[in-house]
């Protein structure tokens, strides 16, 4: 395991790219600029949406024309209705994100609790070179901080590298990298995972069966993620990949380093997304200039994208790979500002003008969803998994962290609805999660234990 | 039963789920603060003195109850603001969710969280070897814990409805009644392991609260009869 990890350094990129939140629509509207009044952008978006969805049938086109004439008339009303629709659909989107995050966490926690392998310490990644086995507290703290610095600098380097690649249009390289890393994830990690699970439950499986199972799983996964596939299946694969990655992290990151890294990653995410010179922001702007859909990969989308007729980059966009973390970060950024605003606009425009039109429009609008980077999934699951693995308060702490993360996600989505641009999804949730973890573990646990032993109820 | 409530009534509407999780969050925060106080008190006192420890525990429990109710009130305030926002933004001038539904969901949120925290470690231990009450404690530990937790979850639900109703209509005595009931139930649990003392009154109180909440929500004996007759 150790040698493997050392060789495959390309796999271990932390998913900082994934840590952003954005909503829907993949292709940015060409006419969209920040200065334009919202209505124009919305109108253009609505038109473009209909064009994009034209493969759905003639109804769509007719609807587009009708709504096109209807839109200018209704614009004043639309401004007001925008907000409320945002909120209404906001709740639905929040749930659409709650479910996969919850599923991922459940998978990780279940595995941690049952399979011994992921809680044994069998070595460390090369990204965290300093060991934590030192006797003194100060030394340990120092080592974990140093580990964090190494990890974060690796992330930054990879991100910048990816932005450069994107800037200089080395698309083939990026795609190849993505495909390679998702290949490794799907096959190798699944093999290890399956092996450990079978070992735990003492189930025998012969090699040919194993080969067939893993081959099918991996092949379908590759197709689903990088090409086309049913949405649910793709979402399931993305969740599984995030869970696998989170498990790897939980196993191979030493204790204190993991917590410090979580904190540092959320700070990094905050800066990378919001600072004008941040790599993610640059990526978004570059993609905006080129009017290209953001990069493939590493994004979990809660709804179908009408990319059937679109160019390849779109369909490849749903891939999930570790190496593309940096790419994904960049990708996220791009998707965030234009598409979020677009989708907001288009969502709100959608219902108003298209009410007289067809149900297809509504279908289109409902299908629009929110996108969450896969890195977010992974780090949330790392937090909850670590809580499950190392907390002595067991389930209480895990539950507390789970609720904290969900609330953080809610708040982030609320902010998204208010600010209408791409936001980092990590900071709020991870902060809440960390606070709750440490406080529940140290404060609540003795209290609850004492209460339970006397069978008192509060 | 609480999960049944959740699945049948809450899982459909995303807004309710959010309110539920937020309710659970508020309960959690109240628990956190109360355990913080208790922890400080314990650390500051003598660990050898049994009576003092017991007294501190009782104090901790009471304080926690008060804090829970305080947080329920805070949550009520937050939900009021949210409802005003929703009404302002909605198309037809009325909010997609009424304050009573919110009260119900908030109650369930509180209840679920408190129930989960009370039960889940027990459940995890129950998966282990079966040695209940081996040190002379009651044999019925798990069973009574389960019942007590269930009654507490239901009570939280009803208290939520009553509390919000009291706040809506500015009837302070309703709010005071909820707080007193909560204190009573917690206090009754001090009678454990004399289970008769704690379980039976708790169930009685729950029945009373249920009837009261039902009446407040606009139900009546007639409705009930019609409902039952329609079914059979």
Automatic annotation (TrEMBL), chain A:
Keyword terms of this UniProt record: Endoplasmic reticulum, Golgi apparatus, Hydrolase, Membrane, Notch signaling pathway, Protease, Transmembrane, Transmembrane helix
Superkingdom in the source lineage: Eukaryota
Main location: endoplasmic reticulum
GO MF term set: aspartic endopeptidase activity, intramembrane cleaving
Region (Disordered): 1-72, 328-362
Composition bias type Polar residues, residue spans: 336-347
UniProt-listed Enzyme Commission number(s): 3.4.23.-
EC class name: hydrolase
Residues annotated as signal peptide: none
Similarity section: Belongs to the peptidase A22A family.
Protein name according to UniProt: Presenilin
Species for this entry: Emberiza fucata
Gene transcribed to yield this protein: Psen2
UniProtKB/TrEMBL annotation, chain B:
Subcellular location: Membrane
Keyword annotations of the record: Membrane, Notch signaling pathway, Transmembrane, Transmembrane helix
Membrane-crossing segments per the record: 17-41, 56-75, 102-120, 140-163, 175-196, 202-221
Main localisation: membrane
Signal sequence residues: none
Claim: Oxidoreductase is one of the keywords in the record: no
Membrane topology value: Multi-pass membrane protein
GO biological process, one term: protein processing
Highest rank taxon of the organism: Eukaryota
GO CC term (a single one): gamma-secretase complex
Similarity annotation: Belongs to the APH-1 family.
PANTHER family given in the database record: GAMMA-SECRETASE SUBUNIT APH-1 (PTHR12889)
Assembly description: Component of the gamma-secretase complex.
Record function comment: Potential subunit of the gamma-secretase complex, an endoprotease complex that catalyzes the intramembrane cleavage of integral proteins such as Notch receptors.
Name recorded for this polypeptide: Gamma-secretase subunit APH-1
Source organism per UniProt: Emberiza fucata
């Amino acid at each position: 395991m150790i040698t493997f990890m050392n060789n495959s350094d390309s796999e271990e990129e932390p998913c900082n790219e994934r840590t952003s939140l954005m909503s829907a629509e993949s292709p940015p509207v060409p006419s969209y600029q920040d200065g334009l009044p919202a209505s124009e952008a919305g109108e253009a978006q609505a038109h473009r949406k209909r064009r994009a969805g034209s493969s759905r049938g003639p109804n769509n086109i007719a609807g587009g024309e009708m709504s096109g004439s209807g839109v200018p008339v209704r614009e004043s009303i639309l401004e007001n209705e925008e907000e409320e629709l945002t909120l209404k659909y906001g709740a639905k989107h929040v749930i659409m994100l709650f479910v996969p995050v919850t599923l991922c966490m459940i998978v990780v926690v279940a595995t941690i609790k049952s399979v011994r392998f992921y809680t044994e310490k069998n070595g460390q990644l090369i990204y965290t070179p300093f060991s934590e086995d030192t006797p003194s507290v100060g030394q340990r703290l120092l080592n974990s901080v140093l580990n964090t610095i190494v990890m974060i600098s690796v992330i930054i380097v990879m991100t910048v590298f990816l932005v450069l690649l994107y800037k200089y249009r080395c698309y083939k390289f990026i795609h190849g990298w993505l495909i390679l890393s998702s290949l490794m994830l799907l096959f190798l990690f699944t093999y290890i995972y399956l092996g450990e699970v079978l070992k735990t439950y003492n189930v025998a499986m012969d090699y040919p069966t194993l080969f067939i199972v893993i081959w099918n799983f991996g092949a379908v996964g590759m197709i689903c993620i990088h090409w086309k596939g049913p949405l649910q299946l793709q979402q399931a694969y993305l969740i599984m990949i995030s869970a696998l990655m989170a498990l790897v992290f939980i196993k191979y990151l030493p204790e204190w380093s993991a917590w410090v890294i979580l904190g540092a990653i959320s700070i990094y995410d905050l800066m990378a997304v919001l600072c004008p010179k941040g790599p993610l922001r640059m990526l978004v702007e570059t993609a905006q200039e080129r009017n290209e859909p953001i990069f493939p990969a590493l994004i979990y989308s809660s709804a179908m994208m009408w990319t059937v007729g679109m160019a390849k980059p779109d369909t490849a966009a749903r891939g999930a790979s570790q190496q593309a973390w940096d790419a994904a970060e960049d990708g996220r950024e791009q998707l965030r500002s234009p598409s979020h605003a677009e989708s907001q606009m288009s969502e709100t425009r959608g219902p108003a003008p298209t009410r007289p039109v067809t149900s297809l429009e509504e279908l289109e609008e409902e299908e629009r969803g929110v996108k969450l980077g896969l890195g977010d999934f992974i780090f949330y699951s790392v937090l909850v998994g670590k809580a499950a693995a190392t907390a002595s308060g067991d389930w209480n702490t895990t539950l507390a962290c789970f609720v904290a993360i969900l609330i953080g996600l809610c708040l982030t989505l609320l902010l998204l609805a208010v600010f209408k641009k791409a936001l980092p999804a990590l900071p709020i949730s991870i902060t809440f999660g960390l606070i709750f973890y440490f406080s529940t573990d140290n404060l609540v646990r003795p209290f609850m234990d004492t209460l339970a032993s006397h069978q008192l109820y509060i | 039963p609480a999960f049944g409530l959740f699945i049948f009534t809450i899982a459909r509407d995303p807004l309710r789920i959010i309110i539920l999780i937020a309710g659970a969050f508020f309960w959690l925060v109240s628990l956190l603060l109360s355990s913080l106080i208790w922890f400080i008190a314990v650390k500051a006192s003598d660990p050898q003195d049994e009576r003092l420890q017991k007294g501190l525990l009782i104090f901790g429990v009471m304080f926690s109850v008060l804090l829970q109710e305080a947080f329920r009130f805070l949550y009520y305030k937050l939900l009021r603001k949210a409802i005003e926002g929703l009404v302002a933004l909605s198309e037809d001038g009325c909010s997609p969710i009424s304050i009573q539904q919110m009260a119900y969901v908030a109650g369930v949120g509180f209840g679920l969280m408190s129930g989960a925290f009370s039960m889940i470690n027990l459940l995890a231990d129950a998966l282990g070897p079966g040695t209940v009450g081996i040190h002379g404690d009651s044999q019925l530990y798990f069973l009574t814990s389960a019942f007590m937790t269930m009654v507490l979850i239901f009570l939280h639900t009803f208290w939520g409805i009553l509390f919000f109703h009291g706040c809506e209509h500015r009837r302070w005595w309703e709010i005071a009644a909820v707080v007193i009931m909560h204190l009573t139930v917690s206090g009754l649990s001090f009678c454990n392991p004399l289970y008769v003392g704690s379980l039976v009154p708790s169930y009685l109180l729950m029945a009373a609260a249920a009837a009261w909440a039902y009446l407040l929500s606009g139900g009546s004996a007639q409705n009930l009869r019609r409902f039952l007759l329609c079914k059979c």
